[in-house]
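Deliverable D4.2, example record:
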Amino acid sequence: MSDIKAKLHALCVTYVKTRMHAAEQAIAEARQAQNDDTKSSAGDKYETGREMAQQETNRNLTQLNEANKLMVALNQVSFNGTSSKAETGSVILTNNGNFYLAISAGTLTLDGKNYFAVSPASPIGFKLKDKRPGDEFILNEKTYQIQSIL
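Output generated by the structure prediction step:
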């Protein structure tokens, strides 16, 4: 049981590291472009190019910061043990999908099954939290019944 949790946790770590790497690479490219931009006779063009590169750097720094926050949240998720109710780190199996309550990382595929990695703060995560097998809830006109919690 905790094997599934550990594997889903590892997939989330890979997701976050991929986002971090992409942001770091984009920052490096934007800074390189900014440094390579040489002043020409059209001074405004130079300043515009540098400003656009700076905006790109700032946008990617924001994405890197968000990815770092996800990693911090993920590091606080326990994937050992079981619980009788849905909590952070739980795998929740429902009649309308399987969920891993940790961070918002989209769809994760493990052993041919799809799991939706959701944050406890997301609308579905909020509805899942503290539910027990047999409980039901409705979200977006769809009824979910908790079948089991790992």
